[in-house]
Design goal:
Elements lengths: L7 E8 L3 H12 L5 E3 L13 E2 L9 E2 H14 L3 E3 L3 E5 L5 E5 L4 E9 L3 E3 L15 E2 L2 H4 L7 E5 L3 H10 L5 E5 L9 H9 L3 E4 L2 E7 L6 E6 L5 E5 L2 E4 L3 E3 L29 E3 L11 H21 L30
Parallel strand pairs: 1-2, 1-8, 2-5, 8-19, 10-17, 11-12, 11-17, 12-13
Antiparallel strand pairs: 3-4, 6-7, 7-8, 9-18, 14-15, 15-16
Helix pairs in contact: 1-2, 1-6, 4-5
């Protein structure tokens, strides 16, 4: 789908092309709502940088993340989803129908919007990290822990997430070392006590990662003591970065209510603070952060949107185009370009 001089008209616009967005597209397309999905740049969400996926139902031998996303995308297109490989730069939700403009200049006018822009893991941005992502560097113990049986592992961070990841990894690892830049953990007391009692977990305090080491797979990490400046190499078979996630919600600040941590606030299942705008996946879920739960939430948002449209008397597909005058509200909208899918 390419940019058009006249806005594209649809019942449902979907922002994001990860498991949540594409599942919402499948359901709304099968409901004859002819959704338009704006994929984001890059498209496909976090699974596009995930090598092996073994916990998504239906693939007993596992599947590569990009291959899984390609299959789901083809399924959405098969039922009539129109996909725009672009990102949303402007969004107007102060009146209906809603108006969206992409970075490439396309305009979409929709009666309902499903937001599925996801969240991105925060990374250390040190040498070796990006090169070895998927080859020993991970941000999800639940996703990847199974692949690290019998190895010595590092977990970077000092909050609840880091200790949850470390505790989970002890099911597979020989030893888990938590590396924290301070001399005290930020995690809740119960998580600290649990980790300290686990014989497989040890701690390195007042240290930061200078470099992740390895060619083809992780062999260790270079750590720097922030008090003394001493640098040492710690051998390990994997590095799990657990310093948090950043929801892709910059576009919606001032337009939709956000939680204090930046995630979209929802009520009545997937409904946001604006009637007709729904949220799905990691953009509002900071607890589970799994592909399968994101897909489930995409289904929920699609059903909620379909029922809301029916209650508003807007069943069935909308026309493909609207007069260009309807785009007049867009320049006054809030938002910045979206990132990711």
């Amino acid at each position: 789908m390419t940019s058009q001089s006249s806005p594209v008209r649809t019942r449902v616009a979907i922002i994001g092309s990860g498991p949540a967005g594409l599942t919402a597209a499948i359901y709304t397309a099968r409901a004859n709502l002819r959704p338009v999905l704006i994929a984001g740049v890059p498209a496909g969400g976090q699974l596009m940088i995930t090598n092996e996926v073994e916990n998504y139902p239906g693939f007993p031998d596992g599947i590569q993340g990009p291959e899984l996303m390609d299959l789901i995308r083809k399924q959405a297109e098969r039922f009539g989803t129109r996909i725009l490989d672009d990102s949303v730069s402007r969004l107007e939700v102060r009146s209906r129908p809603f108006h969206l403009r992409t970075s490439g200049g396309a305009e979409v006018v929709a009666d309902a919007v499903i937001v599925a822009t996801g969240a991105q893991a925060k990374w250390l941005n040190v040498p070796g990290e990006e090169k070895l992502r998927g080859h020993g560097v991970s941000a999800c113990a639940t996703c990847d822990g199974f692949f690290f049986k019998g190895r010595d592992l590092l977990v970077i961070g000092g909050g609840d997430t880091a200790l949850e990841e470390a505790t989970f990894l002890t099911k597979f690892a020989k030893q888990v070392t938590v590396v924290h830049r301070r001399d005290a953990l930020r995690a809740s007391r119960i998580m600290v006590e649990r980790a300290q009692k686990n014989p497989k977990i040890r701690f390195i305090w007042n240290a930061v990662v200078e470099e992740v080491l390895g060619e083809g797979s992780v062999t260790g990490a270079r750590l720097k003591d922030i008090r003394t400046g001493e640098v040492r190499t710690v051998p390990c078979g994997g590095v799990f970065v657990a310093i948090g996630h950043e929801p892709t919600t910059a576009l919606f600040r001032g337009a939709l209510e956000l939680e204090p941590n930046g995630y979209l606030r929802t009520k009545e299942h997937t409904l946001t603070s604006v009637p007709g705008v729904f949220a799905a996946g990691d953009v509002h879920d900071h607890r589970y952060r799994q592909a399968v739960t994101a897909a489930g939430m995409g289904c929920m948002a699609a059903i909620d949107a379909e029922r809301w449209l029916a209650e508003e008397g807007m069943e069935g597909p909308a026309g493909t185009e609207v007069p260009s005058a309807t785009s007049a509200a867009i320049p006054n909208a809030v938002g910045t370009p979206t990132e990711g899918g």
